[in-house]
Amino acid sequence: MLPPELPPLPALTRAEGEFVDSYLRVVDLVGRINPSRAEDTYGALRAAQALVTGAAELRDALTLMHARGERELHTATLDRTLRVLDGERRAGRVTMPPGPGT
Questions:
Q1: How far apart are CA 19 and CA 31, in angstroms?
Q2: Which residues contact 7 (CB under 8 A, 6 or more apart)?
Q3: Does the reported pTM lie above 0.70?
C-alpha cells in the first residue's frame, strides 16, 4: 500500500524555496540541540556546529530575496509550504515536551 499523496507545494521563487529549506534545516538542528530532547552530548555538539552553516545559509537566502526586491514574506504561502514539509512536527522538537501528568 502506498502512503497518501502529499498536497502540492505552493509556487515559490527559488529564493523562497532556499529560505524555507534553510529555515527547516535550522529548526531541525535546534531541535537536536534542545536540552530537554537531546539524547547525547556528541549529537548536540554536532548539531550546534552545523547550526553555524545553517544560519549562514538562512541569512544568504534572505539576503538574496532582499537583493532581488522581494521585500515582503508571503506568510500564507510560506505557511502552507511549511505544513506540507512537516514543519509543525519539526518545529515541535524545539519546544519543551509535555510535563509529567500533562
A1: 18
A2: 84
A3: yes
Report how far residue 102's alpha carbon sits from residue 100's, in angstroms, rounded to the nearest whole number. Answer: 5
**Best CA proximity match to 68, nearest among 23, 27, 9, 19:** 19
Q: Of the candidates 101, 85, 83, which has an alpha carbon nearest to the alpha carbon of residue 21?
A: 85
- What pLDDT score was predicted for residue 9? 84
How many CB atoms sit inside 10 A of residue 29's CB? 22
User: 57-91 in b/e burial notation, b at 16+ Cβ within 10 A?
Assistant: bbeebbebbeeeeeeeeeeeebebbbeebebeebb
